[in-house]
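Need residues for this backbone.
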């Protein structure tokens, strides 16, 4: 965790998009990101 994101903190989420890596550490930010990215949309 420290080597990749610079912090020894959990929860964390490593995100790799377009060749760039970023890290999220706040639970609410992680949940919102995952819901926006992977939630099944109602028809």
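Answer:
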């Amino acid at each position: 965790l420290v080597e990749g994101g610079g912090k020894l903190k959990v929860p964390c989420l490593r995100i790799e998009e377009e060749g760039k890596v970023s890290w999220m550490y706040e639970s609410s930010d992680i949940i919102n990101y995952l819901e926006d990215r992977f939630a099944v949309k109602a028809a």
